[in-house]
Structure formats: structure tokens, C-alpha cells
# Entry
Amino acid sequence: MNATSPPVHAGVILSTNHIQFDPELSLRGGGCADCGAAAFPCPELCPNCLIPMAPRLLGRRGVLYTYSAIHSGPAGRNTPYTVGYVDLPDGARVFAHIDGPAAALEPDMAVQIRVVPQNDSVCITWTPEGDHDA
Ligand SMILES: [Zn+2]
# Structure
């Protein structure tokens, strides 16, 4: 983490090496030059071709694949909160915090990434498009 990056709430994104804040919030994943597979976080090797994957920024928008409410969380984390999987247009599937109660979500909803204050840190979350200006 550099001096200008806010602290990131531990959880789904375990390292600030996995995110970029400027010029806009983006996930740092990986892509395969041979088969086009994308993954987050960037694995050392492509799961299809077993050749080295190159770091690449992933899309800021995706589609909610599935989700669940979490009622017992780590200290300092407000509950309940929602986690789920977001499918990105380039094929990566990302496990993530999802904004809002699970009852208000539906599979295949369009979502976009954003930063949400969480106590004395921030949480990277995905929110249904149209709910917030991100
Ligand atoms: Zn590949």
C-alpha cells in the first residue's frame, strides 16, 4: 500500500496489490495471452494453458452470479452483510462484498465496484447499478 491509499478492510480483497485506486478504482487481475482467460487475483499460471498469466486491470462492472447474507462476522464488521460472486465481462469470477441486503438482490443483476467507508477503513464492494453514483 502506498502513502495515499486508504486502509482496506480485511476480507475478500486480502492485499492492496489486488486493487488500483487511481485514476479509478479497478481490480488488478490477470489475463492469458494464449486463450484469453481472465482471473482474480492474478494466478502465476493460466488454469487452462499452464503458461504464465500477465497482470491486467479487470472491468469495473459485472453481473451478480450468486450471493448470501453473513450474520456472524469478524470483530469490527457490521452484520449482517452480503457476499457473493460477480462475473466480469472478460470471464473472471470474483468473490466479493455486495452492497445491500441479500433480500434486495437477484441473480444476474448488473453491479459495479465502489469504495464504501467501513469504521476506520474502507471496504471494496459491488453495488447494483443505479443504486449509487460510483
Ligand atoms: Zn490460457
Summary: Residues 16-128 form one domain. Strands lie at 19-20, 26-31, 38-39, 54-57, 61-70, 81-87, 93-98, 110-118, 121-128. Confidence is low (pLDDT under 50) at residues 1-11.
